[in-house]
Amino acid sequence: MTELTHTAHRDYTGAKLGMWLFLFTEVLLFGGLFPVYSVYRSMYALDFHEAAKGLSTVLGTVNTVILLTSSLTMALAITALQRGNARRSIWLQAATVALGLAFLVNKYFEWSGHIHEGLYPNADELLSRSHGQVLFYGLYYVMTGLHGLHVVAGLVLIGIMLILTVRQRITESDHGKLENAGLYWHLVDLIWIYLFPLFYLIT
């Protein structure tokens, strides 16, 4: 029995370490984009400021609140399961998925508005503007689009965790997978916390 417990603990620790290493590679991915943004912003400060006026601060703020709330529900879901309340954890995981979907819906409408205005890569309207504004929107679509893909991946991951919890494959005594999913989701939220001021609060 002792040997089995030790093995389970060792596997759990290895899985957590693997997740942290994976998250580190994700940080490196976005960490390479942030310096690019900073360089171009310093070169075209006025153009970036003017381009940012086309973004909706309200939508950006709403999405920030949504993701912060989803981080809270995910953390509470893990805590509930650790305390043996699987039913509460299931509802909180479902709430996290719902909030993530709400974020994507808002982003869809935001992108649709920009595309309708002709503010997308290689559009005549955008190309008629200054070079700095073209760079701003290029970075905006790349960085928020990449973040959006991570949100989708996170929702799929949490959805799988939700199903496993319902089927009692994730339990009070075996919740490592849910914790790892929570770590990934917190990283997704953290990245947005950096993206929000960069694109929506430029002064």
Provide tags for this entry.
203 residues, mainly alpha
Architecture overview:
There is one protein chain. The chain is mainly α and 203 residues long. The protein is built from 7 helices and no strands. It has helices spanning 2-43, 45-52, 57-82, 86-116, 124-127, 131-166, 176-200. The chain is elongated, with a radius of gyration of 20 Å.
Short structural summary:
The chain has 203 residues and is mainly alpha-helical. The protein has seven helices and no strands.
Q: How far apart are the termini? A: 62 Å
* DSSP strand count: 0
One letter per element, helices H and strands E, the order comes to: HHHHHHH
pLDDT averaged over residues: 90
SSE arrangement:
Layout: H1 2-43, H2 45-52, H3 57-82, H4 86-116, H5 124-127, H6 131-166, H7 176-200
Helix pairs in contact: 1-2, 1-6, 1-7, 2-6, 3-4, 3-7, 4-6, 6-7
